[in-house]
Design a protein that fits this description.
The complex is a heterotrimer of chains A (101), B (171) and C (336).
Chain A (H helix, E strand, L loop, with lengths): L2 H22 L3 H27 L3 H31 L13
Chain B lengths: L1 H26 L3 H21 L3 H25 L15 H21 L13 H9 L3 H22 L3 H5 L1
Chain C lengths: L7 H35 L16 H10 L11 H17 L18 H22 L3 H32 L4 H6 L16 H16 L11 H4 L9 H25 L16 H20 L7 H30 L1
The chains are: A mainly alpha (101), B mainly alpha (171), C mainly alpha (336).
Chain lengths: 101, 171, 336
């Protein structure tokens, strides 16, 4: 077992845990944290493969874009959560069942 | 020899830190503990980036994820919960239902991971920042510009969404 | 007898880290004394005069001993785990910055090729540590202090980063050692005086914004004692409080040292013939001078309000930084 396999395993575990987090938690921000775990796992995978199997930087470029998108997504998501909290006074995603504010 | 041993020790420390804190993120009942555990996951991943000679990415991970996203998340928790309620408890649902597909997927990933024949090369250990920068402004120029547009749009959208609406004041 | 040869790098690293921690503690001791002296003289007093005879030079040692033997109080309602963890996080975030400070050409923890960027990145840990401390204390003042502090630090990170980009652009590298090497040969080669007036504006913006980064007056709202008792470390005492304290003075040193490195020529003397005086003395001298200016400002300027703080950041520093960046970019391109 080399570092390569260990890191792939870490990325896989992060992905699975993120998925579990998204599926089981109720609080909107917990779900967002799960999404961050998944994004991290994906970025880590890109970098691992570009480092160990190709030897170029395209994977790292992809990881940069993933970080950018994660930042944009987190900002918008939290703004939406704030709005939901303000109008429906709940932060649990299951209770936000109406589209009309 | 001892240097190699130390490097491996640091590597395994990072692996355990990342996975362990990710488990806390998912299973801790108190949402702020989850958020602070996420800090260690993110730092662990940043450390793993260093092992993949992605030093620029490691620093970006610290800057954007820890300094930006995680701070936002913690602020979000503060603002959408009663601030002085220490525990901010949270229930989970569908635990066992969710476990099924997740374990299935995990099993498939690990099976592939084990059985696949990877064509590994001897990795180059060298600073990559300069080449990464050149790549982003030549090969990836269009995605780069699109990403900056996306960030601008997200910025304006987030401000618009988070601001209290006009009619709220009229009521 | 074991051959030490293969372990030499390791031993040097360990010695360097221990040396840095010692240096930070000594600097903090000296800085507390200096702060009280500066405060005293600005307010037409003398400051500490008794302990140790000559101008109270033993006062910081007495303070340190008092702090170390004080009872370590953890509030009953606090979140104990996070309460204990937070000071170390803040301290690590501050100490990590020292790794890339070039005291001299060879006296540097690690000459990373992303040196400047690394410093901006590890500062993030401090923000999280402060939020953690504020929340774990379970106290309104701590909470408000922490939220003010975090909002302030992440806002002012942007002008700091943008103004640090200007010398980075001129040098074409983020490595601390190379940036300093590009400024060799007299003060007219320092980045603060090149491409006048852009780099001077960048330096001024960096200095002011870095004051906000380290929560110093006039941007010390997070620990405004007249409003929030002591901000996020209200509940801390003893050794944990000392950790915050060390981190704060460590941060002051780091931001000043970065200003000295990227704008003021690092370890080089202002005139080439003065280079016979060793580099670390120049480096620490320049840094100590900037630290002194920080203290001077603290006792001269009144504190800003929260809205003024945000106004200064987003409506003054940020546009100027962007315009500056654009113009310096043009300058670099046109000059080739």
């Amino acid at each position: 077992m080399t570092n390569f396999h260990v890191m792939l395993a870490v990325a896989a575990i992060l992905f699975v845990l993120g998925l579990l987090c998204v599926m089981t938690r109720r609080h909107a921000i917990s779900v967002l944290m799960g999404v961050e775990l998944i994004l991290n796992s994906a970025a880590l995978n890109f970098v691992i493969f570009s480092h160990y199997t190709v030897g170029n930087l395209f994977g790292q470029g992809m990881a940069v874009f993933i970080i950018i998108i994660a930042a944009a997504e987190a900002a918008v998501a939290l703004a939406i959560f704030l709005n939901i909290y303000r109008t429906l006074s709940t932060s649990e995603i299951d209770k936000a069942t109406q589209l009309k504010g | 020899m001892i240097l190699h041993f130390l490097t491996q020790a640091v590597f395994w420390f990072l692996v355990i830190l990342t996975v362990g804190s990710a488990i806390v993120v998912v299973f801790n009942k108190r949402i702020l503990h989850s958020a602070f555990a996420l800090l260690f996951t993110l730092c662990g991943v940043a450390g793993l980036y260093v092992f993949l000679s992605a030093d620029f990415l490691a620093a970006s991970q610290m800057l954007v994820y820890v300094g930006g996203i995680l701070t936002l998340i913690i602020f979000g928790v503060f603002l959408t919960a009663r601030m002085y309620n220490m525990s901010i408890p949270e229930q989970t649902h569908q635990r066992f239902l969710a476990l099924l597909p997740v374990l299935g997927l995990g099993g498939i990933i690990f099976y592939v991971l084990n059985s696949a024949e990877w064509h590994l090369i001897t990795p180059m250990v060298a600073p990559t920042t300069e080449n990464l920068g050149k790549m982003l402004l030549t090969t990836y120029l269009v995605p780069f510009e699109v990403a900056s547009m996306l960030l601008l749009a997200a910025l304006i959208g987030a401000i618009r969404l988070a601001r209290p609406r006009k009619e709220d004041h009229d009521d | 007898m074991i051959a030490l040869e293969p372990y030499l790098d390791l031993i040097i690293s360990v010695v360097y880290v221990v040396g840095i921690v010692l240096f930070l503690s000594l600097f903090a001791l000296f800085a507390t004394w200096l702060e009280r002296k500066v405060a005293g003289h600005i307010q037409d007093r003398l400051g500490p005069m008794e302990t140790g005879g000559w101008h109270g030079w033993l006062q910081p040692i007495a303070d340190a001993i008092k702090l170390l033997i004080k009872e370590d109080i953890i509030p009953a309602a606090a979140d104990k785990k996070l309460f204990k963890l937070a000071p170390y996080l803040v301290f690590i975030g501050s100490l990590a910055g020292f790794a890339v400070l070039p005291f001299a050409a060879n006296l540097i923890g690690s000459d990373l090729n992303i040196g400047v960027y690394y410093v901006i990145a590890v500062t993030s840990l401090v923000v999280i540590g402060i939020l953690m401390a504020g929340w774990a204390s379970n106290n309104k003042w701590s909470m408000y202090g922490a939220m003010r502090s975090a909002a302030q630090m992440i806002s002012y990170e942007i002008p700091v980063a943008l103004s640090l980009l200007i010398p980075v652009m001129m040098a074409g590298t983020m490595s601390m050692v190379e940036i300093v090497d590009n400024q060799a040969g007299g003060f007219w080669n320092w980045y603060v005086f090149r491409t006048m007036p852009f780099s001077l504006i960048a330096f001024v913006i960096y200095f002011w914004a870095s004051l906000a980064e380290v929560n110093r007056a006039p941007f010390d709202l997070p620990e405004a004692e007249s409003e929030l008792v002591a901000g996020y470390f209200t509940e801390y005492s003893g050794i944990r409080w000392a950790m915050f304290f060390l981190a704060e003075y460590g941060d002051m040193f780091v931001v000043s040292a970065i200003a000295a490195t990227v704008f003021l020529g690092g370890w080089y003397a202002p005139f080439p013939f003065l280079d016979i005086i060793p580099g670390p003395i120049w480096f620490i001298g320049k840094t100590a001078f900037l630290v002194f200016v920080q203290m001077w400002l603290r006792w001269t300027l009144p504190r800003l309000r929260v809205d003024q703080l945000m106004y200064v950041c987003w409506k003054i520093f940020l546009p100027f930084s962007f315009a500056n960046l654009l113009l310096v970019g043009l300058w670099v391109v046109l000059k080739g």
